[in-house]
Amino acid sequence: MIQIENLKKTYQTSTAVEALRGISVQIEDGDIFGIIGLSGAGKSTLLRCIALLETPTEGRILIDGKDISSLRGRELTQHRKQIGVIFQGYHLLMQRTVFANVAFPLEIAGAGKAEIQQRVTELLELVDLADKADSYPSQLSGGQRQRVAIARALANNPQVLLCDEPTSALDSFTTKSILDLLQDINRKLGVTIIIITHEIGVVKQICNRVAVIEAGLFAEQGTAADILAAPQSIAAKQLIGIGGAL
Amino acid sequence: MAGFFAKYAPLLLKGLEETLYMTLLSTLLSYLLGLPLGVLIYATKEGGIHPHRCIHRVLSWVINTIRSIPFIILVIALAPVSKLIAGTSIGPNSSVFALVVAAAPFVARMVESTLEEMDIGVIEAAKTMGATDLQIVTKVLLPESVPSLVRGLSISAITLIGYSAMAGAVGAGGLGDIAVRYGVHRYQEKVMYLTVLLIVGIVQIIQSSFNLAARQIDKKNR
């Protein structure tokens, strides 16, 4: 279970920018949790805090009761392995083959050759790319690259898969296949999935719960079914496309 | 014409050999020093993978200072130290120290700017997988930059050919020495032009072979 308690993040530039102004949420094990909002709402900052790439200014992030937001050094490095992250831009290693990309997190965790061979083969089968093991990312389509990124993010058996706009660079057909894969992973492996997106279609297709973020705060949160059927906040209505220009 | 070549061929060959020797050895040593320095200055910058203001500032200052001294002055200023290290003040070995002192900061900046081109997202992705700073350097930054580093290597080597010719003018031998002695002091322009042709040839070969190598290695644009 992931608990986020009153999370705040202020960036100190010439003026202080409050990107997150007190986010609280509880994400249960096995959820596919959507965080939806328009550009500038604070989505990316929230993702970066959960991914432990950014230290919150205030508040805590607890995984199974343990505060991970204040970790430093070696402990931080270790805990990052609990959270797999995939990005809109894939961020694969372009000079490595598909196999070597998926092997990367295992290598840095100090896994042996035989273990890597077995695990990577398994993961590539899971994402349906077994035949592309020796290809380079530049030879793959966007959807295939995202599959490699998913396999890579799952290599260390994370509890949580954090997805940053995972389908925003993909066409609608490929989007559906990636979302199907995420759902499949959620069911098969029991991995909790958090998806950050601006596309309401993503929430409709796979999320069981959703939070709408606006101006650094959650405007509303609840089950996807409820919010899609009867959005309360203006932000949610705008995203769903009812209420027009409010 | 044949007589001319027969007369000067041994001289030019020796010069060529000395130039290649100086360039090769000093390029190698400059990278041994400049590559880690370049990584360090990249990593320690503000917002880098391991920010450290003090190290970054000192390194940056030293590199800028050395780079602002014209090479011909540097080689003369370092002559006493060079002599101490090489045991002689003439011949190719005498210039290697000065060449490395001049080229290592150049290489460091070259490496730094190569690493700057790297997509920050890839580094962050590695971080989320639990990579340590050292692992990021050895498994992400450097391997992903190899094609660009190879291109940078050719630029450094060619710069060092130029430097070695200047060092030649103050006693280090090589093609630069021949060009100055024959072309300037003895008015034998033909010999000078031949040395120029040889240097042009070396530069062309280095540039095109390194470009080819970089293209071969690079998996990014297939």
Give your account of this protein's structure.
The complex is a heterodimer of chains A (246) and B (222). Chain A has two domains: 1-82 and 160-200 and 220-246, 3-Layer(aba) Sandwich (Rossmann fold); 93-157, no CATH class. Chain A contains nine helices and ten strands. Chain A is globular, with a radius of gyration of 18 Å. Chain A is of the alpha/beta class. With 222 residues, chain B is mainly α. Chain B contains nine helices and no strands. Chain B has helices at 2-44, 53-68, 71-77, 79-86, 92-116, 120-128, 133-172, 174-185, 189-217. The N and C termini of chain B lie far apart (49 Å). The model of chain B has no long low-confidence stretch (mean pLDDT 93). Chain A binds chain B through residues 51-53, 77-78, 80-81, 83-85, 87, 89, 91-96, 104-105, 107-109, 136, 138-139, 149, 152-153, 155-156, and chain B through 119, 121-122, 124-132, 135, 139-140, 143-144, 146-147, 218-222.
Which terms would index this structure?
heterodimer; A: 246 residues; alpha/beta; Rossmann fold; 2 domains; 6-stranded mixed beta sheet; B: mainly alpha; MetI-like fold
